Amino acid sequence: MMDIIQHIFDAIPLLLTFKNVLAMVVGTAIGIAVGALPGLSATMGIAVLIPLTFTMDPIAGLGMIAGIYNGAMYGGSIPAILLRIPGTPAGVATVFDGYPMAQKGQAKLALRISLVSSSIGSAVSAVALLLLAPPLSMIALKFGPADYFWLAIFGLMTIAVLLSSNPVKGLLSAAFGLYIGMIGIDMMTGIERFAFDQLELLSGVNIIVLLTGLYAIPPAIDLALNPVKPVGEIGKIEDTTRNFRWSSLVPVWIKSSGIGVITGIIPALGGNVAALFAWNEQRRGDPDKDKYGKGAPEGVAAPECANNADTAATLIPALTLGIPGSSVAAVILGALLVHGLMPGPQLFRDKADITYAFMLSMLVTSGLMLVLGTLGARAFVNVLKMPTQLLAPMIFVMSTIGVFAIHNSMFEVWMMLGFGILGYCMEKLDIPTAPAVLAVILGPIAEENLRRALLISGEGFLSLLQGPISWILITLIVATTGLPILKKMLLRQKSNVSAVAGDE
Amino acid sequence: MKKLFTAAAVVVASAAAAQAEYPERPINMIVAYSAGGGTDIAARTLAPFIEKHLGGGASIVVLNRAGAGGEIGFTELAQAEADGYTIGFINTPNILTIPIQRDARYSLESFAPIANVIDDPGAFSLLPSSDIKTFDDLIAYAKENPGKVTYGSTGLGSDDHLAALEFERMTGVELKHIPFPGNADVRTAVLGGHIMMASMNISETIGDVHEGTLHALGQMSNERWAGAPEVPTFKEEGYDVVMGSMRGIAAPAGVPADVIARLETALKAAVDDPEFQEKAAQQHLALAYTASADYLAELESLSATFNALWDNTPWVQQ
């Protein structure tokens, strides 16, 4: 422990030179912008930047990357709150309460909550990375295929909550998501599923294509169809930031950053899952469930804190074991390689100076994010005052550019527009889109790992019930989903009984 | 003396200019995998050195065309105009196995190989705590417990998978294949003890071998790779399995021979550049430069091997 602190103190003067701080400021600003633009994600931002960091000093280059990573996670919430368009997959859960808040005229407060929560999440995560990386990294190895299966099921259970008002429509959306998740070459057999001999469909549907289509296009269509927006109604922005009781969010932050850090360490789950978990847990734990989805400040704080708490935590298995838990972490590993840093235990021994400076830059950029976000908030809110004649085409153009940039494929642009029309219809028919997104992310994880677990053991379904992690997850599933349903049924029975009793 | 140098330089430069205008505009280099991946990083590391040795302010733009295990990028390269302004990385075994597995819009004849750059041999590795320490242990255990040895690979038809199939065919043992989406997933599963063995390229295994977290039974090259001199080859141990992932550069078929020759010369100089060598060592790149003609011969012989293997044990359900 002492030598870790020693390393951290050694890294501080290395990191805090003018050049490095400038690189981190630039990175954070790029990150916020990349995150805020639908279709562009942290993964892409960093991938594009890697060649530019070739000629840079490693600490400056990696500091810039840390800034992009943290900034993008926060940036995704800006359009989510203002326009109900999540800028990144991790921003989906922020829409639930963020957009209603903005509709109530609390856009400024929502942005502020998102910013503060994101910074706190990032900071907690960075501290976990700095101090606890080696012991925590062992969690990543402990997860076997059966455990991943139960974890994905646990995640899919949150769909049950998203269904609330109309279960049939919600399940329809979830089934659609599961179907989309099946498209492409099946990993286990090599059979092409629902690809219709289209080369572009062989590797499946990219989540960003689906997300941009379902979330960015319908609001743009809406804006285009109703171009005259009465100024003063939504344009009116109250400044409620001052009267807000920030202390009420402290328990939310503690819980959500914990969820974010743990989700981050487990490979294969990303910030999007962390945010949904946190939002769901926040709603479940609150006695007043009805306020969620209608503009509850806690409903913004929880997912934003969690998706940022995921960032540095994802790097824990990446740096200590060379196991990238997400596509962003994989790209960052690539950047480390370019600078001659081979991930693994030796990284903390032989290249301690650069490694600790990089980890520290995750912490510093979470602070920079707070500063830049505060400065930018004034400008961001003005999006609401923009004439819709301008806003709608801008959303179309940016979504198209963003989706095209993923694989430089026009096919995916058309697919995104197709999903956009579908999303618009779903919205008009009151079919929620969030279950579809969750199913696309978790469906393939559940399926692949179920089949892998069965293949490895060769002993049938009983093999899913071995191992302590599986049991913990099963208990969690029963406790969070099964019990409330049971309680509801018991209550109903009781009221039936008492109703019958009252009749007599 | 200085004057003489300048004069010589001018003569050489003008001679080069007269010899060929190529390249007079940026060259696109297609990478069939996503940005930030192994091939992409190798390509982006190498590109500036090719630019330097092509001279004349040449510029190379790396384009990522990922998807379908490389097929999207390979198809685009095959169908690009044969003017020398589109080149790309081709990766074995995918470049060869995709046309065997399904109706692809290209074949090996669609390409003019320029040179191979990387040849990363396959390897088998296990946890050091495993009772299996040698090939003899592995074969004895697998014969006693058919299908009990689980090994992870980076997917059906990957070099890791084909290598294990070849090993099974040769020794008559039965192993159980567990496909994973990527190399990191295989590593996680073997380090966590969820599978018994990893079939992974040696460059991806050697870090763990040095760290003492994995034990490599052997590497599937003709000669031991310089980065892993302590790991014996399968051949040395008596199993003639030579398999790996080759990453080289090709142009579409039909590019003029003098353009291919210029690219080949520049590529050789780039790979030999000490600065590039140093970067490659940092990234654990298993460099293995092979000139155009030999590279083509090697690709053809590999293709024949894969065809034979496919006839024997098709690795993808039809």
Task: Break the fold down into its secondary structure elements and pairings.
The complex is a heterodimer of chains A (504) and B (318).
Chain A: H1 2-15, H2 18-36, H3 42-53, H4 58-75, H5 77-83, H6 92-103, H7 107-142, H8 145-163, H9 167-182, E1 184-185, E2 192-193, H10 207-225, H11 250-265, H12 271-285, H13 297-321, H14 327-338, H15 345-350, H16 352-381, H17 388-407, H18 410-428, H19 434-457, H20 468-503
Antiparallel strand pairs in A: 1-2
Chain B: H1 2-19, E1 27-31, H2 38-54, E2 60-64, H3 71-79, E3 86-91, H4 94-101, E4 111-126, H5 135-144, E5 150-153, H6 159-171, E6 176-179, H7 183-191, E7 197-201, H8 202-211, E8 215-219, E9 244-252, H9 257-272, H10 274-282, E10 287-291, H11 292-312
Parallel strand pairs in B: 1-2, 1-3, 5-6, 5-7
Antiparallel strand pairs in B: 3-9, 4-7, 4-8, 4-9, 4-10
Helix pairs in contact in B: 2-9, 4-11
Overview of this protein structure:
- The complex is a heterodimer of chains A (504) and B (318).
- With 504 residues, chain A is an all-alpha fold.
- Chain A folds into 2 domains: 2-466, no CATH class; 467-504.
- Chain A is 74% helix and 1% strand.
- Chain A contains 20 helices and 2 strands.
- Chain A has a two-stranded antiparallel sheet.
- The mean pLDDT of chain A is 86.
- By secondary structure, chain B is of the alpha/beta class.
- Chain B has 2 domains: 26-119 and 244-312, D-Maltodextrin-Binding Protein, domain 2; 121-219, D-Maltodextrin-Binding Protein, domain 2, CATH 3.40.190.10.
- Chain B is built from 11 helices and 10 strands.
- In chain B, strands 1, 2, 3, 4, 5, 6, 7, 8, 9 and 10 form a 10-stranded mixed sheet that branches.
- Chain B is globular and about 65 Å long.
- Chain B starts with a helix and ends in a 6-residue tail after the last helix.
- The chains are: A mainly alpha (504), B alpha/beta (318).
- Chains A and B meet through helix 3, helix 7, helix 14 and helix 19 of A and helix 2, strand 2, helix 3, strand 6 and helix 7 of B.
